[in-house]
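Residues determine shape. Next comes a sample protein:
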Amino acid sequence: MNHPEKRTIITVAALALLAAGCSKKVAVAPPPAPAAKAAAPAAATSRPASTPASAAATPRPTAPAPAPASRYPSAATRARIDQLLAKIEDAYFDYDKSSLRPDALNALQSDSTELRDILKDYPDYKLTIEGHCDERGSDEYNLALGDRRAQAAKDYLIQVGIPSSQLNLISYGKMKPVCSDHDEACWQRNRRIHILAMAR
């Protein structure tokens, strides 16, 4: 074997070895799977962090607040109040007096306890007590007398248990008579208090 042939064989052998070495290096290269495994834990660690954040962002359902109780009576209850007031007759007074007579007390006692029991549930609902006088005397005097008569009725109703804050007073003096004859029978009918429920 001459030298050129020897060199050629050595060169081919060296190339073959080199090729074999290169192919081994390529085969030994790490597969892409380990890289995916390395990424997977990172993704797994990101999931728990996002779960509490989303749970915290979700508002908890709250129970609806109870509807506030009405401070005014229903139409049916107002009708019952009107019936009671109609049964409580006008309380009448002696001439130039503002103290309640026995018959006036009896008139105010009629159904006033039921009225009290209804009104205590509706603190914003009010009654108006009107004071009236007969035609004799000046306007100013009768306005003051009518006010004293209304106050006497209010004091009685407060004793029954109706709160003072639910009782308004107004005096009409001799401005609203129920009759216009000029005799004692008519004057007696005009010396009175009258109770009205608030308009609504």
